[in-house]
Amino acid sequence: MTSVKAAILGFGTVGQGIYNIVHERREHFKQTLGVEIEVAKILVRDASKVREGIDSSLFTESFDDILAIPDLEVVFEGIVGEDPAYGYLDQAIEKGCHVITANKVMFARYGQELQLKAKKKGVQVGYEATTAGGVPVIKTMQNLLRVNEVKQVQGILNGTSNYILTQMRAEELPFDVALKAAQDLGYAEADPHNDVSGEDAFRKLMILCALAFGEQPDWNKVEVVGIDGISSEQVEEAKAQGLRYRHVADAYRDEATGEIIAKVGPQLVGADHPLYAIDDVNNAVTLDTNYIGTLTMVGPGAGMYPTASVMMEDYADMLAKPEKAVSLA
């Protein structure tokens, strides 16, 4: 039985989910993947903090301790923000490790750079968890692009905003009350700016653009509008007309100029639109392709296990296809 060593960067919701899955599914991984996965180290801010049921020697505050792990195979990253996450993954790739991330803020800016470096080093980068939680958008698109061309990407990429809009329509709540409900349920942070402003959806859209079109649009040319300007009266008026507000991230390549056109903002959609029925915290991505036509994927957009499970699935794919590096498009 082959044993592989893994490190986890960050031990918040995502990091804990990965640790739990590795331990709960240990025997399953032995049978299905033919490996025993060992979490060798976990990088945290405070290694002295007591974490029930976990050996305290696993925790470290120094990334150098991660790099010093003999025969380290894979690094799972669940840190918030661009830095130091990018630097950590860059060093891990340099060491010859596979890396798997859920960090959309970092990956939107540095994803293509990390993938190019990984290809040169003969390792792989997994990033399914950066875009729509448990919805397998990245793997699906990678498979489609072997034959199809993706002409347009549309998506509900932020579950918090979608929940708020759902509550404003279904429960007739004003924005502030719906936002408070999202915070009480743990869907929204104490500072919900990234969610309600559209910034979170924008970063995810940039990741999808890089895969779908092989490049991103000029960030400065992307219009990003949040949901905080939508009133109860507007929602009710739309409802009376059989329409629903959805916060949509949209991108396509202009056939005439070759330029990628992207925008993020509220849209009114009718019952014939593929995003019309997507309620609550669900995410959805619609791909318009040349051969298959329109394909829509729906699922939970966040949470401990939806996110951690797709990160583990990324690693399972790497074990199944060790000779194939994850491509840029």
UniProtKB/TrEMBL annotation:
L-homoserine binds at E189. Residues 10-128 form the Aspartate/homoserine dehydrogenase NAD-binding domain. This is Homoserine dehydrogenase. Pfam families: Homoserine_dh, NAD_binding_3. Residues 136-314 form the Homoserine dehydrogenase catalytic domain. The keyword Amino-acid biosynthesis applies. NADP(+) binds at G10, F11, G12, T13, V14, G15. NADPH binds at K104. It comes from Candidatus Kurthia intestinigallinarum. Keywords: Amino-acid biosynthesis, Methionine biosynthesis, NADP, Oxidoreductase, Sodium, Threonine biosynthesis. One of its GO terms (biological process) is methionine biosynthetic process. Its EC number is 1.1.1.3. It catalyses: L-homoserine + NADP(+) = L-aspartate 4-semialdehyde + NADPH + H(+). The keyword Amino-acid biosynthesis applies. GO terms for molecular function: homoserine dehydrogenase activity; NADP binding. The active site is at K204 (proton donor). Pathway: Amino-acid biosynthesis; L-threonine biosynthesis; L-threonine from L-aspartate: step 3/5; Amino-acid biosynthesis; L-methionine biosynthesis via de novo pathway; L-homoserine from L-aspartate: step 3/3. Belongs to the homoserine dehydrogenase family. It comes from the Bacteria. InterPro entries: Asp/hSer_DH_NAD-bd (IPR005106), HDH_cat (IPR001342), HDH_CS (IPR019811), HDH_short (IPR022697), NAD(P)-bd_dom_sf (IPR036291). It is an enzyme of class 1 (oxidoreductase).
